[in-house]
């Protein structure tokens, strides 16, 4: 039977998106150092609840790009909490999943 090691992160979110992303990346690095296979970040790990202000396109936005790069760098699955996703005139609360190659393998809008 295989063993899967899961890391869970709880972050302190500020109104500074770049700081929130930096904190999330630090948790991803620590998860890999702890030999985790998967890390799950919390909802709203990169922003506050002001969705229209922080909305970005997935997979090309700032948060998506950072999570993808970290998944690839540390060869770890990353469950990206949620990212405010801009799609046309709408904004969704979207959870992303990145594989160890940095590829987006799943997303769920709520």
From TrEMBL:
Q: What is its EC number?
A: 3.5.1.3
The record ties this protein, via SUPFAM superfamilies, to:
Carbon-nitrogen hydrolase
Question: Which GO molecular-function terms appear in the entry?
Answer: omega-amidase activity
GO CC, sorted alphabetically, is: mitochondrion
Q: Which GO terms describe its biological process?
A: asparagine metabolic process; glutamine metabolic process; oxaloacetate metabolic process
- EC class, as a word, reads hydrolase
- InterPro entries per UniProt: C-N_Hydrolase, C-N_Hydrolase_sf
Under Gene3D superfamilies, the record lists: Carbon-nitrogen hydrolase
All copies of domain CN hydrolase, residue ranges = 4-110
Query: According to its UniProt record, which reaction does this protein catalyse?
Result: 2-oxoglutaramate + H2O = 2-oxoglutarate + NH4(+); 2-oxosuccinamate + H2O = oxaloacetate + NH4(+)
Q: Which PANTHER family match?
A: NITRILASE-RELATED, OMEGA-AMIDASE NIT2
| Protein's name according to its UniProt entry | omega-amidase
Q: Which organism is it from?
A: Trichomalopsis sarcophagae
């Amino acid at each position: 039977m295989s063993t899967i090691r899961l890391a869970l992160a709880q972050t302190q979110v500020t109104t500074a998106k770049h700081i929130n992303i930096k904190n999330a990346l630090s948790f991803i690095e620590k998860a890999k150092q702890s030999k985790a296979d998967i890390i799950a970040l919390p909802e709203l790990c990169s922003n506050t609840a002001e969705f229209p202000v922080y909305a970005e396109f997935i997979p090309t936005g700032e948060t998506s790009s950072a999570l993808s790069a970290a998944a690839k760098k540390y060869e770890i699955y990353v469950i990206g909490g949620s990212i405010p996703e801009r799609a046309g005139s709408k904004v969704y609360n979207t959870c992303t999943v990145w594989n160890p190659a940095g590829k987006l393998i799943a997303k769920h809008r709520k």
